[in-house]
Design brief:
heterodimer, A: about 110 residues, alpha+beta, 4-stranded mixed β-sheet, 3 helices, B: about 575 residues, alpha/beta, Rossmann fold, 3 domains, 9-stranded mixed β-sheet
C-alpha cells in the first residue's frame, strides 16, 4: 500500500495549507477490506475534495506503535486530522452517506 | 487421614496456575488463576474490579517476575497510577522500569462514526505491541465492556471478542478481564460466554448499613476451588481475601496451663487454670463482671511477663484502666511497660471483615500470648449471624494456630435462651464460663459456673462471684434444702445457722445446769438423810445410855432409899426425887 500524499507532519504545522484536508487511513496489512476502504475514501475525496486533500495510509502491522496516538481500535479507520475537530470513521467506508456525515463533508460543501 | 489423602488425590495432570499474590485468593483457588488463560472478574460499580486487576499485574511484575500489560478503557494512565499508589502499589515505578505497560484506550462514542464493515484488529495490534514490548506474561483488560458503548455493531463486536479471547489464549498470557455486573447475567454484555475458564464475582453488599465486600469463584474449569462467598477487603496493602476454611484443624496443642487470675477459679478448673492456646468463652448478662474477669486474666498474663492484647469494643482503654483501678487492679503500669496493649474500636465503625483484618494485623504486629476480645457479641452487630460465626471460626483458628490463649466475652440477654444462642459459638470454644445474676430478696447477686472445660476435671459447683475494692473473689454459694442462696440470703442463712447453734449450746448448758442442780439437791437430800440417820443412831445411843443411867440411878436410889430409911435426919426428902425427874 502506498502513500497518496506524504504531506508533512500535520497538526497545524504552519506550512500546512489551511484549506487542505488531512486524512489518515489506518489499516492492518493489504487485506481486501483495507483496499476497499482506501478505494472508497479516495473516490469520495475525488468527488468532494478534489485537490484539497491528503491521505496518509498507515499500516499498523508495520508500525504498531502508531495505533496508540490516534486511539485506533477498529480497522480500517479514517481519522480526519484537519480541519479540526478530529473526526473518526471506522469501517470499509462502503456506506457513503455515513462517511459523508462522519467527515462532516455535507456541511462544508 | 491417610485414606482420605488417597481418596482426594490430586489428578496427575494439574492445571498450571498463575499465583495472583492476592492474600487468601491463592488459597481459595489452589494456587492462583489458570495460567495462560483468560479470567473474568465481574462485579458492580465500586466493588474493586480494577484494583483486583491492577494488583494482579503489579504483584506479578514485582513478586513473580512476570511483566504485564494493562489496557485500560476507563481510566487514564495518570489516574490509575495515582489511584493505586494510595494502596502502596508502585505502578509508576514499574512502568518506568518497563515491567508494566499501561495503554489507555479512549473511546468517545460521539466521535466515532461507522461506515461499513470493520474489525478490531487495531486493538489486537496495540495489545500485541504492548505485550511484545515488555515480554508480558499477564494482561489486564479493564473493562472491555466500554467497547459496547463505543461501537454500535454488536455482531462484529461479539465476533471480535470471541477472537480476542482465543487470541489471548494462543498468545499464552494469563489475562484478567473485568466486566460490569449485569442484571440477569454475570456481566452486562454476557462476556462470560467467551471466558469459560475462570469467573470470579466481586460483590459489595450493604447489610444493616454496613458494607461488606465478597468474592466468589463462580467457575474454575478443571480445578477444585472454594465455592463459598468469601469476604474480602481493600486495606493498606491491597486486597485480602479471608478464607474461612483455609485453616484446618491441625493446630499444635499445648498441655501447659495458665492461671486465670482468680485463684478460686483456677481451683474450679482442676486447680491450674486454662490450657495455653485454648479459647475461652465467658458469657454473662449485663453487669455480671465479664470485663472484670477478662481484665484479671489479662493482668495475670502480664504478671507472668506475657504480652496481652485487649480488644475492646465497648469501652475506651482509659475507661477500662480507670474502672479496674476501683477494684484494685492497676493496668496502667502494664500498658506503660508494653505488656498490655489495648485496641478499641466501635463495632459499627466498619464491616466485619475489616474488623477481622485489623485484628489480624494487630495480632501479627504485637505477637501476643493472650488475647482478650471484649465483647465478641458487639462485633455480631457488624454482620449477619452466619458471617459472624465464620468470623469467629477464622479468628479462633488463627489464634490457635499461633498458640494464643484467647478469652472472648459475650454479652447475653437474661433467661435460658442465652445458652441456645451461644451454643453455635460455644462449639468452637474449649472452655465456657457463665456469669449470671441471681435475683431474690430484693437484690441481685452474681454467680459463676464452669459450663464446660475441655480436657480437664472441673467443678460442677455454682460459686458466688464477689467484687470488692480488693478485687474479685469466688465464695461457695449456700446450697441447702432451700436451694442456692447467695448474697444477703446466704449471709442470713449463715447467721441463722449460727444463731441456731448458739441456741442449742445454751439449751444444753441450761439442761446441764438443771441436772447439776437436781444432783446437788439429791446430794443435799442424801446429806439430810444421812444426818437424820446419824441423829437416829445418836438417839439410840443416848437412849441406851439413859436406860443404863436410869437403871444405875434406880439401883443407886433404891440403895439410897434403903439408906435413907435408916438415916432420914441427915438428907432432905426432895433431893432424890428431883434427881429422878431430871433423868
Amino acid at each position: 500500500m502506498k502513500t497518496k500524499t506524504a504531506g508533512r507532519h500535520p497538526n497545524g504545522s504552519p506550512r500546512w495549507p489551511a484549506h487542505l484536508w488531512q486524512l489518515r487511513l489506518y489499516v492492518t496489512g493489504e487485506t481486501s477490506r483495507s483496499l476497499t476502504a482506501f478505494a472508497n475514501l479516495k473516490k469520495l475525496c475525488e468527488n468532494h475534495l478534489k485537490g484539497r486533500y491528503r491521505i496518509t495510509v498507515i499500516d499498523l502491522v508495520k508500525r504498531p506503535q502508531l495505533a496508540k496516538g490516534d486511539q485506533i481500535l477498529a480497522v480500517p479507520t479514517v481519522v480526519r486530522k484537519l480541519p479540526r475537530p478530529v473526526r473518526t470513521i471506522i469501517g470499509n467506508l462502503s456506506d457513503t452517506d455515513h462517511l459523508l456525515v462522519g467527515l462532516d463533508l455535507r456541511a462544508t460543501d | 487421614m491417610k485414606n482420605n489423602d488417597h481418596q482426594f488425590a490430586v489428578p496427575a495432570v494439574r492445571l498450571p496456575k498463575c499465583p495472583t499474590g492476592v492474600q487468601g485468593l491463592d488459597e481459595i483457588t489452589g494456587g492462583g488463576l489458570p495460567r495462560g488463560r483468560p479470567t473474568l472478574v465481574c462485579g458492580g460499580a465500586g466493588c474493586g474490579k480494577t484494583l483486583f486487576a491492577v494488583e494482579f499485574l503489579v504483584r506479578g511484575a514485582a513478586q513473580f517476575g512476570e511483566p504485564g500489560v494493562l489496557m485500560s478503557f476507563e481510566e487514564t494512565e495518570a489516574e490509575l497510577k495515582a489511584n493505586v499508589a494510595s494502596l502502596g502499589f508502585d505502578l509508576a515505578g514499574l512502568v518506568r522500569r518497563k515491567k508494566i505497560v499501561v495503554d489507555y484506550v479512549h473511546i468517545e462514542p460521539s466521535e466515532i462514526h461507522e461506515s461499513g464493515e470493520y474489525d478490531l484488529e487495531g486493538l489486537f495490534v496495540r495489545l500485541n505491541h504492548a505485550i511484545d514490548s515488555v515480554g508480558a506474561k499477564r494482561v489486564v483488560l479493564d473493562t472491555l465492556e466500554a467497547l459496547f458503548a463505543g461501537l454500535r455493531n454488536e455482531a462484529i463486536l461479539r465476533a471480535e471478542l470471541r477472537r480476542l479471547f482465543r487470541w489471548l489464549k494462543d498468545k499464552g498470557v494469563t489475562a484478567v478481564i473485568t466486566a460490569e455486573r449485569g442484571r440477569e447475567q454475570l456481566t452486562r454484555h454476557g462476556l462470560e460466554e467467551y471466558v469459560s475458564d475462570c469467573v470470579i464475582l466481586l460483590d459489595h453488599r450493604v447489610h444493616d448499613q454496613i458494607a461488606t465486600r465478597h468474592l466468589r469463584v463462580v467457575k474454575y474449569r478443571g480445578a477444585l476451588h472454594g465455592t463459598n462467598e468469601f469476604p474480602f477487603l481493600i486495606g493498606d496493602d491491597g486486597i485480602s481475601v479471608l478464607p474461612i476454611t483455609s485453616v484446618g484443624l491441625n493446630h499444635k496443642i499445648s498441655s501447659e496451663r495458665i492461671a486465670t487470675g482468680v485463684p478460686r477459679l483456677d481451683a474450679m478448673l482442676g486447680g491450674r487454670g486454662f490450657f495455653r492456646g485454648s479459647s475461652i468463652l465467658l458469657t454473662g448478662t449485663p453487669g455480671t463482671g465479664k470485663t472484670i474477669v477478662a481484665a484479671n486474666f489479662a493482668n495475670a498474663a502480664c504478671q507472668r511477663g506475657e504480652r496481652t492484647l485487649f480488644f475492646s469494643f465497648e469501652e475506651s482503654p482509659n475507661q477500662i484502666v480507670r474502672n479496674m483501678q476501683s477494684i484494685g487492679l492497676r493496668l496502667e503500669p502494664l500498658v506503660r511497660r508494653g505488656l498490655l496493649r489495648f485496641h478499641a474500636a466501635r463495632p459499627s465503625l466498619y464491616g466485619l471483615e475489616m474488623h477481622l483484618a485489623t485484628m489480624f494485623k494487630e495480632i501479627a504486629g504485637f505477637k501476643p500470648h493472650v488475647v482478650v476480645i471484649d465483647p465478641i457479641t458487639s462485633l455480631m452487630d457488624a454482620g449477619t449471624a452466619s458471617e459472624c460465626r465464620g468470623m469467629v471460626t477464622r479468628l479462633v483458628d488463627y489464634l490457635k494456630a499461633g498458640q494464643v490463649t484467647t478469652l472472648f466475652t459475650s454479652l447475653t440477654q437474661g433467661g435460658h435462651a442465652l445458652q441456645q444462642s451461644e451454643a453455635a459459638m460455644s462449639s468452637l470454644m474449649d472452655s465456657w464460663l457463665l456469669l449470671q445474676d441471681l435475683e431474690g430478696n430484693g437484690e441481685r447477686n452474681r454467680v459463676l459456673y464452669v459450663l464446660k472445660a475441655r480436657g480437664m476435671a472441673h467443678s460442677n459447683q455454682v460459686r458466688e462471684f464477689l467484687i470488692s475494692n480488693q478485687g474479685i473473689d469466688l465464695v461457695d454459694a449456700y446450697i441447702g434444702p432451700n436451694g442456692v442462696l447467695t448474697g444477703s440470703a446466704r449471709a442470713a442463712q449463715t447467721a441463722r445457722e449460727k444463731a441456731e447453734a448458739l441456741a442449742g449450746q445454751q439449751e444444753a448448758a441450761r439442761r446441764k445446769r438443771e441436772l447439776e442442780r437436781k444432783r446437788a439437791a439429791l446430794e443435799r437430800q442424801i446429806g439430810g438423810l444421812r444426818s437424820e440417820h446419824e441423829a437416829g443412831a445418836e438417839e439410840l445411843r443416848r437412849i441406851d445410855q439413859q436406860v443404863g443411867t436410869q437403871t444405875r440411878m434406880l439401883t443407886t436410889e433404891r440403895s439410897e432409899l434403903g439408906r435413907l430409911r435408916h438415916a432420914d435426919a441427915k438428907m432432905p426428902a426432895g433431893k432424890p426425887g428431883r434427881n429422878g425427874r431430871r433423868n
